[in-house]
Amino acid sequence: MPALDQAQIRSTHRRVVAASFVGNFVEWFDYASYGYLAATISTVFFPSSDRSAALLATFAVFAVSFFIRPLGGFFWGRMGDRVGRRSALSLSIVVMSASTFCIALLPTYAMVGLLAPLLLLIVRVVQGFSASGEYAGASAFLVEYAPSHRRGLYASVVPASTASGLLLGSLLAALLTGLLGDDALHSWGWRLPFLLAAPLGLIGRYIRLRIEDTPVFRALEESRQVVPTPVRALLVTHRAALLRALGAALLNAVAFYVLLSYMPTYLTEEVGFGDTESFLATTIALVTYICFIFGTGALSDRFGRKTMLTGASALFVLLTVPAFAMLDLSGFATVVVIQVLLGGVLTLNDGTLPSFLAEMFPTSVRYTGFAVSFNVANALFGGTAPFVATLLITLTGSQLAPAFYLVAAALVSLVAVVLSRETCRQPLVD
């Protein structure tokens, strides 16, 4: 192949990676901002007479926005498998960034009473709907563009962008908490992270519109083999694969939100750390997570998807409860080490899962299969994780309750992965 063609391929791959990165970055930056500022948001949008009730209500709104995600998964999956991956991704980022920007403009409970949490809920539902097409679409996009021996590495860009969004959210939350007084933070400071969504979303859409759809989808269109009803085809022909994918995604859903979104609140409310220390510990864990994630994606190309996912599940079963038990007895440095360790174990799953799920389904239903399985897992177990963790602690009186919840998720995923076929180094199913 001529050198010019190789240069064009490399340039296309760089733009594909950038387009996939930016969209997920915007999405998870919003979720991080909401999660890390949960204590502040609870007093802004809900009555402050009962702190625990306000915090539970804040996480309940966080969870409710996930319940729309299965519906969004069907919508964006159908659009991506019928019209094209690029079209679905270009539209979803606009809806996501616009709804995120609207949060910054919402009135508070002190201004409009119960209308404030109602408006927050509506905006969060729109966000959940738009976000349901992002992770799956970007993963399918990368896997279908990637060389066959590097699909794991390419797909690991998606969780890396997710963690980068969380990282920026954590840094901004720590900065705002450290620099602003309580009055300023509660009156206007909490709005600042959500204002950034508009310019970031416009940049992401611009990049996505400058690239073509994936080669395998274009080939599907040219051969007139695009499935007119991909949802029906998925539910009728690929039910077994869908169930295995759902089980495999369960650990990612619970562990991601417990360790990287809920953890600052856990350290503050249950362990007794200050807000700044909690944010800083999670920020350090996120930096190491991003460094690890590309390595685990590359390792999955070498050792196989099942090996990596099975190892992640087994390690979570063995290490989670002892690690959480040590958090309450440790100083700042030890807490950071524990978070880094758990984050490293999480990357074994997160760096492998995008390629694993994308490779499980044929091209004609790949977007739909990934979006439905991933979003159902996140709706039922991911978005609800902070709420369930807080509720379990309240009901049991045990600070270890979130750890046992995480172990249960790991056991379910372990069974699903063991029952799945190895997809590494196999041609994409067309």
Key descriptive features of the protein:
MFS_dom, transmembrane helix, mainly alpha, MFS, MFS transporter, 430 residues, Growth Hormone, Chain: A, 23 helices
Explain briefly what this protein structure is.
The protein has 23 helices and no strands.
Question: Can you describe this structure?
Answer:
- This protein is globular.
- The longest helix is centred in the N-terminal third of the chain and has 34 residues, at 3-36.
- It is an all-alpha fold.
- The chain is built from 23 helices and no strands.
- The mean pLDDT is 85.
- The chain has a single domain (14-209, 239-418), classed as Growth Hormone, Chain: A.
- The protein has helices at residues 3-36, 38-45, 51-67, 69-82, 85-103, 109-112, 115-131, 134-145, 151-155, 157-179, 182-187, 192-195, 197-209, 215-222, 230-237, 239-271, 275-303, 305-327, 332-350, 353-360, 366-382, 385-396, 401-418.
Instruction: Output the helix-strand order.
Output: HHHHHHHHHHHHHHHHHHHHHHH
Helix content: over 70%
Second CATH tier, the architecture: Up-down Bundle
How many beta-strand segments?
A: 0
Termini, distance in Å? 25 Å
- Mean pLDDT across every amino acid position: 85
In total, the number of domains comes to 1
Question: Sheet with the most strands?
Answer: none
Membrane topology: Multi-pass membrane protein
Pfam families: MFS_1
Transmembrane segments: 53-76, 88-106, 112-131, 152-176, 188-207, 241-259, 279-300, 307-325, 331-349, 370-394, 400-419
Subcellular location: Cell membrane
